[in-house]
Specification:
228 residues, ABC transporter ATP-binding protein, 6 helices, transmembrane transporter activity, six-stranded mixed beta sheet, globular, four-stranded antiparallel beta sheet, binds magnesium ion, ATP hydrolysis activity, binds adenosine-5'-diphosphate, Rossmann fold
Length: 228
């Protein structure tokens, strides 16, 4: 493995045209996340946090600036996002505010599905999904449908799904916003454990000041920039 950061954002910028002019959703953001690092992203609503994750996660194209993954430049203003689909699938796991599990699939099937999409044979996918759920203390929920799980359990299944393909980078956008404080803490501790034990680089957008002790570093956004 190279010593390059897992994620390196360089001058990331995203402008949207709007009626009143241009919205500078993200305005020249640069920072790195190393393997094993858990970084908290804080900042008021509208400060560009989600836009940053969308650009870093290769779901949107920057207006300017670059995204590097593992020392390789993968996204910039001229890139075609379609060509980044395989990179995204292999190298990035996403967790959003709502777990968005498929309601008619059990927990284990939800996790296995993301492996099958990446061409893992179904029996292997199921086996791997079970091991992941075990590792996240969800073995007893493997065969439950999402509606039978608590919000915290659903979100942990969503984390298992994000981890399924072993991505070096996890991006989470307010993953605990819909959870009570005890369950929120559990999910944050899970991110901490993943970063420490698997060496995954994890960026979590959150408003919850109670989780700050778990982060290696906190980045604060304001008006599309990193607050100094
Ligand atoms: N697709 C879009 N079109 C126009 N403006 C957008 C779009 N997405 C985000 N914005 C604007 O960009 C700014 C940053 O939004 P966002 O990244 O969602 O902030 P946060 O996640 O910190 O709340 C806001 O002013 C928002 O209204
Ligand atoms: Mg947001």
């Amino acid at each position: 493995m190279s010593g390059a950061p897992v994620l390196s954002a360089r001058g990331l910028t995203r402008h949207y045209a709007s009626g009143a002019g241009v919205v500078r959703a993200l305005d020249g953001v640069s920072f790195d996340i190393a393997a094993g690092e858990l970084v908290g992203i804080f900042g008021p609503s509208g400060s560009g946090k989600s836009t940053f994750l969308m650009l870093a996660g290769l779901l949107e194209r920057p207006s300017a600036g670059e995204v590097w993954l593992g020392g390789q430049r993968v996204s910039h203003a001229g890139v075609h996002l379609d060509g980044l689909r395989a990179t995204r699938r292999r190298r990035i796991g996403f967790v959003f505010q709502r777990a968005n599990l498929i309601p008619f699939l059990s927990a284990i099937e939800n996790v296995a599905l993301s492996l099958e999409i990446a061409d893992v044979a179904p029996p292997d996918a199921r086996h791997h999904a079970r091991r992941l759920l075990e590792a996240l203390d969800l073995a007893h929920r493997a065969d439950s449908l999402p509606a039978r799980l608590s919000g915290g359990e659903q979100q942990r299944v969503a984390v298992a799904r994000a981890l399924a393909n072993g991505p070096p980078l996890i991006l989470a956008d307010e993953p605990t916003a819909a959870l009570d404080s005890a369950r929120s803490r559990q999910v944050m501790q899970l991110f901490r454990r993943i970063a420490t034990t698997r060496g995954t680089a994890v960026a979590v957008v959150t408003h919850d000041p109670r989780s700050v002790d778990l982060f290696d570093r906190i980045v604060e956004f304001e008006d599309g920039r990193i607050k100094k």
